[in-house]
Amino acid sequence: MSIELAPCPRPQLERSLSAASRALGLSLAGAMALALSACGGGGSNGGFIPSGSSPAPSPAPAPAPAPAPAQVSISGVAASGSPFNNATLTVVDKTGATVCNTTTDAQGTYTCKLPTTTVFPLVITAQRGTESLYSVSVNASGGRINVTPITSIVVSRLSPNGDPAALAAAIAAGTAVPDQASVSEQVAEVMAALKPLLDVLGSTVDPITGTFTADGTGHDRVLDSIDVTVRPDGTTANIEITLQAIPSANEQPISVNFRSSDPTVPALPPVTIDQLAKPGVGEAINALLARLTQCYALPLSKRVNAPSDTGSVTGTATDVISPLCKSAFLGNDPGQYLSSGSRVGRDASGAGSFSSLFRSNATGVIFDQGSLGHYRSNGDVILRYHSLNTAGSGSFDTLAARYEGDELKLIGNQYIYNASVRPQMSRREYVNSAGLDWVGVGYNVFANNLIANGQSVFSKVEVTSPTGKVYTLLPVPGNSYLAIAINGVVTSPTSVVLLNGKFLNGGAGDPRTLEPALFVDSTVFTDDQIIKIPNQGVWRMEFFHVNQSTANVVQSYKTESRPLTAAEANARSPFVSLTSGMRALLIQRTSTNVNGVFVYGAPSATTPNVFDFSNNAADAWTVPATAVGPTLVSVFGRGPLINNVRTNFNDDLSIASNVRTATINCTPQSSGDPHCDTATGVTQYAQNSYVSTLQLVSRTRDQMDAFSLWALYKPAQ
């Protein structure tokens, strides 16, 4: 586990005109009274009224002042099953003015007293980190407005381009005019789609105006039972509703997908109460994360066996001494925890599950933003969470937990090998070749290249996709992971299955012609085909061993999201960028090389060969507000030429999400790895080794890997 305008309100024109009219009316009445008085009281009659004349009318009484506009309040719950707590909630009215800015409480509730200048309809946004929920109200009397994934669907379908974040601006511009009829129509569409689930749970609550509490019961159990994704692509949004059911082994998910612009929403298939887990899973997830936060609030020597509260120590699960920390694990026993071959502890290299328990700089880590990822076939819960340390570095990850009574306790996935399948999106820029940058989408199929006695333990790993297609992974000398083979041969040491790629800035052509070795799947998926891939696809990995007497091991993985389309990736803007200074420095160091790579000179004990990914100690990259800070930096290249062969290598470094520089050292991956040199007594890059590509990896809340890559080499065109 990695721990590391309010614009001015629109003038009230109608009110101003009315006031002006009243003022004008008074002025005319006054003038008429004066004129009549002058005519009736002047002349030779000395002010007497002539016989037979009508008396002059009395002056008109001044009208009563207009009553002050009543102040309207709104309130509701922001929730996605779990309370959307400590979220920034903003309310924007018809004029584009922000009329409320507040924070949801621990239960996700909020209240706003709106200024008297507020003009309906309203768009409400609740944002927590990089996750946002949306809602809408057309009721000028205020009242209840909930903010949930279901209401986000309604807002998406009301937005002209499907982006719920764009509805407020569209209303202000007059390109969207939601009213009671259109909102009611969209609510009815979504409720009809959810009817099989609503009938089973007996829920009839209106998702926007209905009363509920984020406690796992009633309407909140409906939210616990679905996972909703809304993915804008610039012209519409692609929406998926997935039933959070307990599957049978390797069962594919129950879901429906549609576009925000579709006339109707497809309905979920029939569901039984037995498919749904016990109510209150959101509350159980939050309770578990709160227990971890309380554990990490303890000083080091109170958490584990440690002589002091500073520094780091090594140890195993038996060295966890805090009853509070132990209570987070199944049976109050950290020794039962196993995740991807790792148990609770910290070895001499700093590795181990929950190794942060053994580090003083992890004291004060907060675990929050919990939500249900999915259920495993045995009923275990895969939960998503965010962690944040006191230095401001955060990351997203998942944990496997099991019910013990009504409580969730940590158990891990119980797998013996470190592997994973995650959707990925990548942006590849060519530092020394302008106009060739492209975006690729697909899956990162990772299997750690486990080494024993200097050699890989595996002969191969066969990976079966949700569609039944089989990919073969092979160990590659110098690589920390197994690479995908094409017809039994690794042409490029990649673990990524690219489904499609598109040049940026409207560039024509296909990136496959530029980088054919990176596209290990001959099938090109269109955007429409990618959209139909379910979020929670089930993948199967079978591990074959070099020692054939060792039985094969099978491990299954369910993704939290499908890959994005290229248009969705561009709309989401998840990638980090080089600073102008770092880009200039890379060009300076590599452009004169005929191949455009960074080549190392002779090793030195005093100034060893490393890769300094910094702009002369200044920031090397920037992270946009729409992206998550990277937590892994990698360099790829090849070792020195030996017997006319250069071996591939990759070196990785875990980093804090809030840092913007890194220094990568050479790390041998197996015995005899030639890309590292130890002759000077300092492990460093060997002479004539070269770095060809830099990579920063971010992981989103929905467990999607975003790769920002910079190729130093000059591709053949």
What would your notes on this structure say?
This protein has 717 residues and is an alpha+beta fold. It folds into four domains: 29 residues; 203 residues, Carboxypeptidase-like, regulatory domain (Immunoglobulin-like); 130 residues, no CATH class; 145 residues, no CATH class. The chain is 17% helix and 29% strand. The strands form 13 sheets. Strands 21, 22, 28, 32, 35, 36, 40 and 41 form an eight-stranded mixed sheet that branches. Strand 17 and strand 18 form a beta hairpin. Helix 2 crosses helix 4. The longest helix is centred in the first third of the chain and has 29 residues. The chain is globular and about 110 Å long.
The gist of it:
It contains 13 helices and 41 strands. It has 717 residues and is α+β, with helices and mostly antiparallel strands.
Low-confidence region ranges: 1-54
What's the name of the CATH homologous superfamily of the largest domain? Carboxypeptidase-like, regulatory domain
Mean pLDDT: 89
Kindly state the percentage of residues in helix.
10-25%
Q: Which topology of the largest domain does CATH recognise?
A: Immunoglobulin-like
Report the C-alpha radius of gyration, rounded: 32 Å
* Strand residue percentage: 25-35%
- When the domains are counted, the total is 4
User: What is the 3D form?
Assistant: globular
Number of helices: 13
Query: Which sheet architecture does the biggest sheet show?
Result: 8 strands, mixed
